[in-house]
Amino acid sequence: MPHPHEILVVRLTSLGDVLMSLPAVKALKEGSPGTRISWLVEGSIAELLSCQGFVDHVVRFPRDLIMKSLKGGSGLETLRLLSGFFKKLRAIKYDVLIDFHGLLKSALLDYAARAEKKIGFARTFAREGSWLAYDERVDGADAHLHKVERNMLLVRHLGINGTVPRVELVAPPSAENYVNDLLTEHAIRPPIIALFPFCSKGSAFKRWDLARYAELLRRMKESIPATVLILWGPGEEEEARQLRDMAGAGVVLPADLGVAQLCAVLKRADMYVGGDTGVMHLAAFSGIPVVAIFGPTDPKVNAPYGPEHTVVRKELPCSPCRDKNCKERTCLTSIAPDEVFEEVNRMWNRIKSNLQYPNSNIETMSNVQCAESAKRADDGF
Known about the structure:
The protein is of the alpha/beta class. Mean pLDDT is 91; it is low at 359-376. It contains 16 helices and 13 strands. The strands form 2 sheets. A 7-stranded parallel beta sheet has the order 6-5-4-1-2-3-13. The relative contact order is 0.13. The chain starts with 5 loop residues before the first strand and ends with a strand. The protein has 2 domains: 6-167, Glycogen Phosphorylase B (Rossmann fold), CATH 3.40.50; 173-354, 3-Layer(aba) Sandwich (Rossmann fold), CATH 3.40.50.2000. The chain is globular.
């Protein structure tokens, strides 16, 4: 039996961008029988990637540990971490490296990896001179192409010309079991709507006001017979509880969930509501319909992918834009809670006839499958 082709996919961060690379990687796997796909990534999403059937191996860049050792002044520990990582990265000789990231940091890792051919974006989509690291560069005429379609350009460059495959994430059984216990402990029963009203610190300019989310929650409580889970991330629990108190509705989950656990929660939900964040894409790829509130960002590029999702935004001359320091934020302040509720209610009416809960069990990978997948996730540290 001939040795299978080895392909290294590079998409390090962020959550949304990693997720929007999934369809292209799945297309690559389906269009290249016998190919073994490894994925170079950083952060806790490595655990989730390792449970996807079209990803054979995950190499985790330990950036968090490296930064921690640097801040702690431990130069020897930093060198040990880097040496161990590069040893694992270079352990395999890849036939092809595909860089979906297109930044200087990914290009530096591309140089370190052993690959016969390195492919990435040309200047239309790559930045910081990263295109200089590639043997073959793929251009795109439309700078406003959705990121899922943009990533497919790299796959089609290899002659894989099928349609964009549908991706529905598989959560690790450990995460599914954790969420089962959590929902049982708090007597949370379906139907469930997941609400994530926050953004990362660097993306606060995209965030709809908390008071507007509170009014939306009140409207939902009056009209929709569902449990609303208020999701939050690091440092956001106080605001999550504030939102619940303002709205008089909603259940704030009592723990800061990791990516895999968030995925398991979202797979238990029937609908998702929130802004333009990585969690929004996590919901979309977890298989539930999304109502997304967009302000300054371009939905042509960043909308939740798929026809079942709805984007609420205002068509303004100044939007989309990249002005993080905008004081007016008219693109968001002009969106009224009633407008968002109309879309939430419309989607609810569309999906409620399909809601069925024959039992409390959920489908997961078997423990054997999960154990095998876990072996593919190489933390190394």
